[in-house]
Amino acid sequence: MILLLVPALVQPTIAIVLRKEIRSLSTDEFYEWSTALHKFRDNKIPDFTFPNLQTITAFHAALTLNETYDQAHKGANFIPLHALLIRAFEMGLQYWYPNASSIYWDWSDDPSAIFTPELMGEYNESTGVILNGAFANFPVGYVAEVANEDFLEWVPESQTVLRYESLPLNTEIVGRIANQAMYYDPPATTEMVEACGNMTSFRDFWCCVYYDEDSRDSCGSTSGASESRLHGQVHGWFAGYATVGDSLVRFDGADLATSPNDPVFYLHHSNVERFWQAWAFKTGRFMATIADPCGGYDEETPEGHGIREPFYPKIDMVDAVTDEILPDGADGVPDTPYAICKAIYANPPYVYDTYPY
């Protein structure tokens, strides 16, 4: 199984796509996007690394919980890894609707406006049940639906639902209670986004996106640090918590490992990808080298987080031009931040309707 990361120049069916903000979509465009998402969740695409939505969720969880101390988040590969997942999600949608794209949500501008019957749905403010819209009673993934057993090493044998933590309510459907009092509203501001755009290396850029200003000196360390409002706060803001007995229980979108269960995950991370592409166009591509195509990748990262260290579990990607699986080794370096930066900087398969800087 393979993942085509960038458009093949010899395959005209793979085209550069325009990623739009969710509120700018026409009724027909949103219908196509949401229908494609349901099809991607309910079916399996042949000969694809991520044949359904559940397999992306499982891979994200496996990277978060593997032995390299959270390969998905706690190092410089946080940005390219999530770019890979958002591209895989986009390709999954395009299998069902060729014009679909990985739309984004600009949460710095009236973020609650997407939770309407016409878009992501209203929700019960006590139970978190999504009441209406395209994602009412949207089911979480099940272990049996995941196509690759290597992505399930973190799952206990008796577990059937694709959740890292059991949720004692809404046991089989996605829930959310957005904009609770414990979070900022909006979760982050345009000024915070613009500050990251001024960073002069990839290392400083990703640290700005992931960590708050007081924690950036320890950026990438395995010790505790506070997340910035541009990532973790947004997850908490849109997913929220419910009170169960004496405990606060977070909903799917706020779980570090299995947050892709909630479709809003993809809207949020496409927005983060928008920041990266803007930074890459403004600064990163001018700093990129053959040795470091990211443009200032931090090599002083925890084990498993280096620019040429493969993700675990391993996946295969194909060369965009030759259509051949990239070889292992120092030159090809498949499924690594190196390969993703090289592909996305050189020939991005998508652009955005607007950029923050």
UniProtKB/TrEMBL annotation:
Residue ranges constituting the Tyrosinase copper-binding domain according to the UniProt record: 54-280
GO terms of biological process kind: methylation
Molecular function GO labels: metal ion binding; methyltransferase activity; nucleic acid binding; oxidoreductase activity
PROSITE patterns tied to this protein: N6_MTASE
Keywords in alphabetical order: Copper, Metal-binding, Signal
UniProt keyword annotation of Cell division present: no
Leader sequence residues: 1-15
Tree of life domain: Eukaryota
Coiled-coil region: none
Keyword Signal: yes
Name recorded for this polypeptide: Tyrosinase copper-binding domain-containing protein
Taxonomic placement: Eukaryota, Sar, Stramenopiles, Ochrophyta, Pelagophyceae
